Amino acid sequence: MSSLSYFTPAREEELLWSGNAGAATGPQPSTLGGEEARRFYQSLIEEGDGKERRGMEQRGRENRRGRRASRQQANTTSTTTELEGLRLLRCAQEGDLSGVRGLLSRGVDVNFQDSWWWTGVMCAAAAGQRGVVRLLLQQGAAWVGVVDTQGRDARELARMAGHSGVLEELDHYGSPLGTRDGTVTRLD
């Protein structure tokens, strides 16, 4: 454990903290008055021809525009990715095979997870959409060990909803319940 340090007040006035530091080191050069300082800075400004400054200002504006545009593009891309992923989950839940195929062909992640960690397989399994479950599994969707925020996987969701056909489909593409190792995976 560290020991406490105590503040010890000074007994004598120090020149550095009292504002009299200049008195001990000798005479200080005179300071510029307000008018002299203004003339000095104006002369610096007038020395340059102004073109450099305008060029720098222009480049600065262009750089800011470029950064702003790339930020907006990145935000748009992530928003688009999120919206497309959510569309995949909705199509999976509704049993829209052509919608799921279209989204996957456009590059939507087959293992997209929403903020509750639900995947397309989970949505389709909970809704009893056996054809969509089969399609997603054929496209490489993971489901063994992939759970939502409450620890439920696609098999558990299908079992709770009473969808035996979906359970058969999941057993065909994954390891049977008795041989699963019980590990949990979160897809990122």
Q: What is the structural class? A: mainly alpha
Spatial gap, N to C terminus:
41 Å
CATH 4th-level superfamily of one domain: Ankyrin repeat-containing domain
- How many β-strand runs? 0
Gross morphology: elongated
SSE order in H/E notation?
Answer: HHHHHHHHH
Output the CATH class name of one domain.
Mainly Alpha
Chain oligomer state: single chain
Average pLDDT number: 78
Sheet with most strands: none
CATH overall fold name of one domain? Serine Threonine Protein Phosphatase 5, Tetratricopeptide repeat
Low-confidence stretches: 176-182
Return the CATH architecture of one domain.
Alpha Horseshoe
Question: Helical stretch count?
Answer: 9
Global Rg:
34 Å
* Helical coverage, percent range: 55-70%
Our estimate of the beta-strand percent is under 5%
Pfam families: Ank_2
Protein name: G patch domain and ankyrin repeat-containing protein 1
InterPro entries: Ankyrin_rpt, Ankyrin_rpt-contain_sf, GPANK1
Features:
elongated; mainly alpha; single chain; 188 residues
Would you give an account of this structure?
The chain is mainly α. The protein has a domain at 51-179: Ankyrin repeat-containing domain (Serine Threonine Protein Phosphatase 5, Tetratricopeptide repeat), CATH 1.25.40.20. It is 59% helix and 0% strand. Helix 6 runs antiparallel to helix 7 (130-138), helix 6 (120-127) packs parallel to helix 8 and helix 8 runs antiparallel to helix 9 (164-173). The longest helix is centred in the middle third of the chain and has 44 residues, at 51-94. The radius of gyration is 34 Å and the shape is elongated. The two termini are 41 Å apart. This is G patch domain and ankyrin repeat-containing protein 1. InterPro entries: Ankyrin_rpt, Ankyrin_rpt-contain_sf, GPANK1.
